Amino acid sequence: MSDIQSAARAYLSAGFSVIPVKADKRPAINSWREYQSAPMPPDKFPVAEGVAAVCGQVSGNLECIDFDDPDTFQPFLDLLDLRYSGLKENLVYHQTPSGGYHVIYRRETPPPGNQIFAKDLKNKVRIESRGEGGYFLVPPSNGYIVLSGSLMACPILTNEQVEAVYSTAKVFDEKAAQPKEYGKVNSNSDAPGTVFNRDNDIKTLLTTYGWREEGKTTAGQGWVRPGKESGVSGVLLSSTGNFYCWTSSTPLEPGKSYTSFGLYAVYEYNSDYSAAAKSLIKKASESGKGSETVKEKEKPHKPSRSITVAKIMSTAYSPIQWAVPGIIPEGMTVLAGRPKFGKSWLMLGLSYAVSTGSMVWGFSQTKKASVHYLALEDSERRIQDRIRQMEGYFDEYPNNLYIYTDFPRIGEGFIEELTAILERDKEAGLIIIDTLQKVRPMTGGKRAGANLYQTEYEDYEKIQKWSIQSGIPVICIHHTRKGDPSKASNPFDEMSGSTGIQGVADTLIVCDKERGSNEGIMSVTGREVCEEDYPMFFHRDTMTWEIKTPEKSVDSGPFILSTWFNNNDSITVKEAAELWAINQLTARRKLDKLVEQCEFTKNKDNTKKNLIRYYPENVFFGKKNPI
User: What DSSP state is assigned to residue 481?
Assistant: First the structure.
């Protein structure tokens, strides 16, 4: 009997349900569902590379807090001890092969499912739990070490103690620590709250509002709320300089992080941040110091930052997050098409696929995540009608697919509301804005002293920066210009507006099809994707789009054309499509690229109106253009 099997039997005898796992942490059995409700018989446990404990009721309400970011572990313990003296000594601690940590306990009541408590600014998980329906590896699995305590004598925590563990873990959520900005006039001015934070010490404000210091840890300075003799109610974090509140016995909201301006808005304006910002602007204007918040000011010199190639190549960066692998990565994607093309059907299909973790457009498997769809040109009734027409595609109605028919514009709380979405929904994985025009500032057009390119770039850069910082893909639906974009040699030049949109976006997609046709083409380019044309097909029975992999046979197009010109002096789009066995939009794009490369010229046919013929200019293809 192996060490893993012996340990598994010991765990089973102690009342834990365990399963065998492979070296990659996946179960070494076809299904482990049955062992979430009843333990495996000890003599049935097979030879395996590792063993994992199943969480939840089956193991006596077992729960594990997983510290993926090892830098949070010791500050968590210190802060937990400050809040709940003696609790940390009773817990079980394991170290993982990656350098992370597990904090393990049983609880009085069944644990919920897996939860995420803290992420970093790049949306990477720092602290999460394994609860009902989850499992975690235990010693003697390779690289797992017992640091303190014994799983065989696992402590049982009260609900109050569990809540202390949860709320202490949430302190380390860097996303929740990002302050909101209110009343910002333009890109060259600081928001009133930013100026207030710079000019007002947060410790002084806390003291003014009746709080007092008690206990200091590696995580930060503890504070006791007004009216309480002892026991910390909040912490001033060393990492962010923000104040995190636990108590519900003050005007502050428990589980929330506050800047100096946040405290000021809550205590002086009953949490009306907008009113607080307006008050600061008014005071600054009346005192003659309004240039800092109201008027444009000269930007301070920002020092440059460099990094060596050696440092870049030795750094382990987080992998790119994809909404659709190979097509839509994290960052800002602008997807454009003519009105009534079917962009909303395309986005509904994508929303359903991501929210359920299923195939999207028949093209690629998605990773399950919450989707927030800003359907700003639609009503709830219209969304309902569309989903009913897609019932052949919608097998269920996801409760993690959120529809918005109203949303603030850029400069009117747009970015703040996006940030609030992530604060409410830790599983958010995709934002869709339909359409981009619906979130533009109401002023529209170009601003004084700036051309249209500058104006659009500044407006949409806010979306792009937010998307990159949050690690959440954001798709912005846009329109192409009037006319026929399929006839343009570069489809991306047909996007409505200035090239500022193209300049700021990380990924560009233009979709088009012939009127009345079910066939179309999706042209894609970007910073993280390869430039490609994907054939599309619209299924009217389910009102869904299908994206196909590009026809690689087209790569041999020049050799097929050379044969064609043995007997012909020109070729039309229709003839090229039939020759290459592709749709006409793709054929037109391929021929136009040959024109750009001076391999072909094109002219109207003298006998048929609106018929374009392509003539070879390269001797490789044979004959010359007779015109």
Answer: P
pLDDT range class, residue 15, cuts 50, 70, 90 = very high
Q: For residues 587-616, give the mean pLDDT.
A: 74
Tell me which residue of 61, 285, 103 sits closest to 183, measured CA to CA. Answer: 285
Q: What is the pTM of this model?
A: 0.47
Identify the H or E element spanning 432. strand 428-434
Instruction: Report CA-CA distances (Å) from 313 to 121, 307, 309, 332.
Output: 21, 10, 6, 26
pLDDT tens-digit series, residues 502-519: 888 999 999 888 777 888
CB atoms within 10 A of CB 66: 21
Give yes or no for a contact between 23 and 141, defined as CB atoms under 8 angstroms apart.
Answer: no
Q: Are 393 and 400 in contact (CB under 8 A)?
A: no
d(CA 428, CA 447): 34
Exposed, middle or buried, 53 (CB in 10 Å: 0-12/13-18/19+)? buried
The shares of helix, strand and coil residues in the chain, as percent rounded to the nearest 5, are 35, 25, 45
Condensed to tens digits (0 to 9), the pLDDT of residues 60-116 reads 999 999 999 998 999 999 999 988 888 999 999 999 998 999 999 999 999 999 999
Domains by residue range for the chain, with CATH: 3-173 (3.30.2250), 192-292 (3.90.580), 322-550 (3.40.50.300), 554-621 (1.10.10.10)
Amino acid at 535: P
If 0-12 CB within 10 Å is exposed, 13-18 middle and 19+ buried, where does residue 134 land? buried
User: Which residue carries 């063993």 as its tokens?
Assistant: 51
